[in-house]
Amino acid sequence: MSDIHHREIHHLRGTPRSAIRSVRRTHWQTVKDQKSVIQKLAAPLPRKKAMQALRRRALAVRRHTTLLTRATFDWLSNYLRFILRSRHPFPVYAGSAEGNGIFPLESQCCIALAGDWGSGTTNAYKVGDAMRGWEPDYTIHLGDVYYVGSREEFDRYFLPEAAWPRGSRGSFALNGNHEMYSGGYGYFERALPQLGLQYKSKPAGQPASYFCLENEHWRIVSLDTAYYSRTLPFLELFDTYFIRLHRAQLDWLRETVFRDANDLRPVLLLS
């Protein structure tokens, strides 16, 4: 597994809740990373610092006075590459007893939860270390890997062994609106196969973005409320009409989870 990557906390301040601005953050972070590598490989000599300071000022003026820069075009193409991509197909359960999305829990177990964790900041990794300190049986991520939940961002900030803490018996992750800004491909194709219940010391995979964990005392119902959070390009800030639960989840709740009207176990809802 690859090493974890770090972001500075100020990169996450004021994180946008729209696809267009989140993709913009992803683009500028990539540009910043590339510049950082170049600067490290070509450290300036002391006598050149004054000249380089003048060049930086000239470039800053140019950036502020030029409306359509190359960086703007690069960001726009990056945005269109994400936003115009179709959503990943919505995985559903087969309906059999072995694959109906209901997973048994032990009578006594420790579950650790965290949301908006996939930021790559030092603070996030400290939270992960604190979760490991509890030695949880299960961990559940409540969604949002920043900025757009791409495959690369999952590989950098969530999936490495030293990143998201795994439970000794299993780990699950909910879908988030930031994951769907890139169509959900990083979440569905990269993350879910590496999660789920532990089987022979390896994750068996999380089949879908919704699930139920239960024992004789409780039921933890987790729903995907983010699948339709990305709407039309440039209109996601204003248009919430299409945000809804997928029909498969409604059928699953009615026909599988709450089929028995006499089941009065308390329900914890995660979304």
Structure explained in plain terms:
The chain has 271 residues and is an alpha/beta fold. It is built from eight helices and nine strands. Strands 2-3-4-5-6 form a five-stranded mixed sheet, with no helix packed on it. Helix 4 links the parallel strand 2 and strand 3. Helix 5 crosses helix 7. The longest helix has 23 residues. The mean pLDDT is 82.
Write the layout of secondary structure elements.
Layout: H1 19-41, H2 49-65, H3 70-83, E1 102-104, E2 111-114, H4 122-133, E3 138-141, H5 151-157, E4 170-173, H6 177-180, H7 185-191, E5 196-199, E6 202-203, E7 211-214, E8 219-222, H8 247-257, E9 267-270
Helix pairs in contact: 1-3, 5-7
Short description:
By secondary structure, the chain is of the alpha/beta class. It contains 8 helices and 9 strands. 35% of the residues lie in helices and 12% in strands.
